[in-house]
Amino acid sequence: MTRSGAIYRDLIQSLNLVKDENRIKKKAIEISSQMDLKIGSATMLKNWSTCKPIYAIQIACEMLRVQFDRRCLLKSANTTEQDYYSSLSYIKKALGISSLIDFESLASRFGCPKLIPYAENMLEIFKEEWCKELSAASKRGIDWNGDIYKIAVFWCCCKNVGGQDRVSQDQLIGLQDFSTSRTEFQRTVKLVEKYCKTYISELKSQIKKGDLTITFIKSSPSKRKYVNDDYDYETGKERLKKCVVTQEDTDDELLDIIETRNKGSYTETKLYKDYLVWRKEIFGKIEAQLKMMMIDEQD
Predict the structure, then answer these.
(1) Mean per-residue pLDDT for 155-172?
(2) Which pTM was predicted?
């Protein structure tokens, strides 16, 4: 076994991912090769030679949808949390790895489809108000497609409409596809709160008056499987090898509602009707995505 192969093996074993060792190592080596091609020696990144295989392992796990212990990797990197995630973000951009996080996926995960338009409005207000105080150069340096702005806005919405019992900062920071430090996340949240102060006050007022109600539907563990066995570096898209979604997955999320209501009446509630609208939209988007994938494969 080569020295690099031994490093990957030891890292994977330290994460207790022995059963997935072969596919993680294969993907990590592929990612490492892409780093060599597109980043090179990366002298601007701290502890590059030490951290490079660690970054490759994390990106590989994220692509393969394998759960892993981030704290263990960070400890192995022997660098600060801020430097680690800043470098990881730089690497992903250099490799053209696109994000899978948006308001729809966050709302689906935490069971709050009605929150989506309010989060979208808040993000637009944040962009407009913050940019008023920035120079032209500073504006050009902002990556509005970055996950941190979307997730910070989503968190601000959740905690101001009464969703803090269903969503926490730790859950958001720990999202598998999200790479940032707690310090950076909290700094961004403060920016959103500062520049969206008026909008947040309006939301709170609507909630207090009863003009706005955002319900967080408690969901049971999902049976959906997304296995990303490959990544197309030319198009910047993950190739989904397997995507299984069943009607049972979304129906499970109604379990807690059904148990608390009479079977003959719960279907008439506003909560259930909102859920049906949300479910229809989600299945529509999934169906459209699968059709696009089939067209791409035919081409």
Answers:
(1) 88
(2) 0.58
